[in-house]
Amino acid sequence: MAKPKKKETVSVSFHYLVRMVGNGGKDALPVAFTSSDFDALFGAIQAKAPFDPNDEEAADRIRYRSDAPMENVIRVDDRTVFGTYKGSYWGHAYDNTMRGRIPAESISLRPFHFLLYLSKSGRIYLASQYLGQFGGYSALQRTISDLMPGAGFIMPHSVRLDGASYKNAQAKEVKVTFAEKPASLAASNKITSAGMIAFRKMSKEDGFEAEVAKRLFPFLGGPKNEMRKAIASMLNESSLMEVSESDIMDCTVLAKVNGGTKTIYMLESGNFATKFHIDVKVDDDGHPDYNQTKIAILDVLREEIISRSSDV
Question: Helix, strand, coil proportions of the chain in percent (round to 5)?
Fold first, then answer.
């Protein structure tokens, strides 16, 4: 009998790095990265020493996410690098059924995939994969920035798509996760599980797509409390249930966008990068397949990042 696998959403966020050169502060100016810079960065990644868990100074850099171990890093083409990095988790002791007591000071390392892309404008785009809520972008960004050749300092920016980017999206399903399972569920188009409700389009005439576009999409990229109010209002007025905005933990919308199906994460605040869902298989250890993830992230890069700007 096959062992059960935990199902987690695989997603990717995009960011870009800008090199600033000058005296710092207001006097610093952006200076484009060149092909030679990108070559040197790839060389520095390849030359990076593997993590030695017996080196306490190196372990502290991993603990405090100023460094991320890297492996299986390849050059896809002149402008693209792909590989795997490891995000660190520590600070809380817990019991493991196979290993016993795991001490708080021990470091757990989870593998995630990443991609670097040198744009025509001289920015370096950085894609960081997530598994459910787990990821390690901050450590990855610091590691890449520290390995960057040349003078100056690195300014990171996150790619965030607002509601206008989904003005033509056609919602097919909305999933809302609650702190507790709602007490009242009345609608016929609902699917429920503990702490979650999913409601979806049932017919061409039910107005579901227009309702989601009108009630939820305008709040994308704004404050989380405003989005929670909009979700609670939509649920309450549709007689699905009586719910307080404080009960809402998460919300995603499955929608058709530009001919494809995408998962839109509604409760990401405007300060965070948009997460793009990617449909990839996971291995026996529960992690996304390396080659499938590479192809999927490249697809998102082309369809969601490059296609939106002429100089990317």
Answer: 30, 35, 40
